[in-house]
Amino acid sequence: MLEDAGLQALREAARLSPDNLPLRRHLAEQLLAKGYLADAEAEFRAALVLAPKDPDITAGLAEAFVRQSAHSAALSVLEPFLATPGYPPRMGVLAARALLGEGDTGRAGHRYHEAVSRDPSVADPELAARLTAPPPPPPAAPAHAAPAYATPADAPSGAEVEKSKQTFADVAGMEAVKESLRVKLLLPIQQPELFAAYGKRAGGGVLLYGPPGAGKTHLARAAAGELGAAFVNVGLADILDMYVGSSERNLRATFDLARRNRPCVLFFDEVDALAARRSDMRQAHTRQLVNQFLAELDGVDQSANEGVLVLAATNAPWYIDVAFRRPGRFDQLVFVPPPDAAARAAILRILCRDKPLAEMDFDAVAKVTDHYVGADLKGLVDRAVEVKLQQSISAGRPIPMTTGDLLAAAQGVRPTAVREWLATARNYVLHANESGAWDELMPWIKGKW
Tens digit of pLDDT for each residue in 134-166? Predict the structure, then answer.
């Protein structure tokens, strides 16, 4: 219950005239000024319904959140404006306060000093003192050595930087795909002087698409290993969060992690769940996650993502928002097809190379495994190994695996989802390809149908 008579009169006036935006905004500002933070939050929310993109109302709501220590909510409402050049400096200071409240002193200092440099009147001496205070000493290091790539405190749970031991030599077949990745991603870092002469920066985004199990994740790891770069494998659980605003911050922290460990391959699996078409989304916070993803791909400046190679994989590229295919984002689409017979034979050789073998005819097995992808072939080999292990246990010695063992296992293993994927892809190629986005699929689909 408000004890201030003037505020009570303003609230009654707003109740009688709920669509009066100036009146509702004035009431919210007065409530905020006098410390009625929860009431101010409610009034700012009501005002935003009348003027959803008003920066002053948004800043007022963010301040109400900050003063209630709801730092996550404050950053969530500010982020759409902060992603736009020339945002109001007051918002930069509010973002700095929220970031500091979350323990992110580095980014808080960047936001604060950038805002004050554009408008000195928004300076907050108390906040500035907290930003320049020396950090507390770090805790004593444990007796065992830390890994070469540690996950920083602001990285989302589960996001880790690793060194891939795989290279393109460990990827059977797919020579055209590997060559495409070399030209589009690896050479700008391996030969920076040559590419710099043409104004080409090291970095960028490539979208790998194709049926499930075709080896998209394997290719991403191999690209990192080929380059000797750090590798960050991002799953949906590392980004998506039930609380509004948390998913966006997890995404931002993941990009910051990659930027600190450049050169780095940042890989998003099942990216269609993070980059779906905004027109298909019912909830505003899911659309905001797409906006945040687009902003991170663009970077805060021209060189923000230099040395960060962003790879993404999807089985359903047609569901991804078209804005992601704009130049500078995932403008390079690379089709990863199911392996052909020669590639299937090569995959089988790799899968069997550390097992006791008789003389093998992998080409014969490849001929009877049409439409099998790498995951299917691994299942086939695992089944043959299980049978051979039972025989070896009975015999008391390792019995070499034969071609017949693999052929027998193939009778009980069926390709998983390639046929269904082909049917869906065919519909898009033949009936929804006005932009030419799926021209690369056309000869492959026609050759299979």
Answer: 444 444 444 444 344 444 444 444 567 888 888
**Are the beta carbons of 321 and 313 closer than 8 angstroms?**
no
pLDDT tens per residue, range 385-408: 999 999 999 989 889 999 999 999
By three-state DSSP, how is residue 205 classified? strand
Query: Between the CA of residue 179 and those of 106, 288, 334, what are the distances in Å?
Result: 39, 35, 11
Q: Which of 53, 426, 19, 383 is CA-nearest to residue 211? A: 426
Residue type (1 letter), 198: Y
- 3-state SS, residue 18: coil
Starting at the edge strand found earlier in the chain, the sheet holding 308-314 runs 161-163, 230-234, 264-268, 308-314, 204-209, 332-335
**pLDDT per position as a tens digit, 217-269:** 888 888 888 888 889 998 888 888 777 778 888 888 888 888 888 888 899 98
DSSP single-letter state for residue 35: T
| CATH numbers and ranges of domains, the chain | 5-132 (1.25.40.10), 161-335 (3.40.50.300), 341-411 (1.10.8.60), 418-448 (no CATH)
Helices 246-260 + 71-82 axis angle, to 10: 70
Q: Is the pTM of this model over 0.85?
A: no
- The per-residue DSSP string of 379-422 comes to HHHHHHHHHHHHHHHHHTS---B-HHHHHHHHHT----SHHHHH
